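seq:
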Amino acid sequence: MKLSLTPFALIGALVSFVPAVAQSGTAIPLPDPAFAPEGISADADGNLYTGSLTQGRLIAISAKDHSVRDFAPAGANGMVTVVGLHVAGDTVFACSSDPGISALTGTAAPALVAFDRVTGAASGRYELPAGGAFCNDIAQLPDGTILATDSFAPRIYALAPGGDQLEIWLEDAQFSGEGFNLNGIAYDDGAVYALRYNTGTLHRIAIEQNGQSGAVSQVALPRNIHGADGLTALGNGRFLIVEGGGLSAGATGALLGVTLNGDAATIDTIAADLNVPTTATVIGTQAYVIEGQLDHLFDPSAGPADPYRILKIQLPAAYR
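struct:
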């Protein structure tokens, strides 16, 4: 698989900086030095869930005491490389894909998989429709429909409440291109929003009355996002965007706050100089951000990764 990402030039006005960085003692260490986390989600009880890109397994972490426990073992429910996660009530959804970096490479097809949140037992497996390639990130609509992006096919898939298979909810050639395309996804105020990793752009997708996808438009940002990865909706047109920084050795990223204003948006830097972050979730006024260090997986010159951790970042008032 060839991945090619080019640094993005700044366009438009300068973005503002909101001084809210992770302080000493606000990181949750992950005990396995080879875990390679990517996605993150939280349940109503204050538990965090993340999965391994290289081991195909899930763990749960208490946000209160930082204790870590196994949730679903390697290869459970056909997991290969665990990417995005989403907790919906008592179900933990995960995207399982196969970019060739897992010990389980070649053992199962890409799929959206589901587990019982209480027991950890497999509760559903939904393979991508024909032509599907890389299940990446997950969001939920108000009616319970689960959406998942495909980074290597220009698609968003939908799993209807009670459904037994994924349907193609959106297929649009504008999301075709080299490297990772569609990535983070979120719902806010009657529309779906999605990030495109390799162009650093944010897109709004209308929802028709029948629940199907409608018109697609690009939100005007003051600059492109270098490695646009995780997207978290905060409500009232506010989002967190995880700027990964790219896949080359030494890359750094940031946690950004974005506020919509019609067809445009402003960007605030909430925390900078993060170690190739990937995704974020929110509990109360705290953002929990995965430092995925993807450069160590995709650039041989990067060498061994630093100890993996989840950053706990206090959100500024504008993003609470």
